[in-house]
Amino acid sequence: MSRPSTTMTATVALVLVTLQIVSPALGQIIPEFLGFGYCPETPPQADLDLAKFSGTWFTVTRVPNVYDALASCIYTNYTLDADNNLAVQAFGKNAAGEETVVNSAIKSNKPNEPLTVVSTGVPEAPLKIVATDYSTYACLESCLQYVAFKAQFAWVLTKKPASSIEATNICTEIFKNKMGIAASTMKKVTQGRGCEYPSWARGGN
């Protein structure tokens, strides 16, 4: 096997940041999130209210990722601080079935601009909450650009671990029509049977 190109290596290194945002998974040797092209300029949801977004969300669908630390039963708690930033704790099981916790933070920027994910030891990464009704679904996207390569991620979050067809369809349509993400690249995350959630997470608050 030949040595990876400098471009690919740099792109993958940048990608590591995003993995600690919401929910991670074990993927394939050629990651589905990597490809030629440029990141979309679609803006995040206008007038996003992080106080209303904060709380617990379950990851039900996403673009698979070879570098993710969490593989199943993923739920994330977002806690807003006084500076309008979010402390992020993602819980779930890794590929070996072991309970795992991933910590990071999300910084707010100017109104209607992408958020920024911050995690120790890796570069910062952009994050867009493209659409959310705050109580049922949230569609998240992150895209990292390096020359003509892009590493693009997407997540469908819901307030309950049971996958919502309506929520998934809303986000899938947005991803396809506005972000250039094909529905076929989105994969379900195992939730429900075999997963253990604390009482505060089951409430979906």
TrEMBL record:
It holds the Pfam family Lipocalin_2. GO terms for cellular component: cytoplasm. Residues 1-27 form the signal peptide. It comes from Hyalella azteca. The keyword Disulfide bond applies. GO terms for biological process: lipid metabolic process; response to reactive oxygen species. Belongs to the calycin superfamily. Lipocalin family. One of its GO terms (molecular function) is pigment binding. Coiled coil: none annotated. PANTHER family: APOLIPOPROTEIN D. It comes from the Eukaryota. This is Crustacyanin-A2 subunit isoform X1. Residues 48-190 form the Lipocalin/cytosolic fatty-acid binding domain. The keyword Signal applies. PROSITE patterns: LIPOCALIN. InterPro entries: Calycin, Invtbrt_color, Lipocalin_ApoD, Lipocalin_CS, Lipocln_cytosolic_FA-bd_dom.
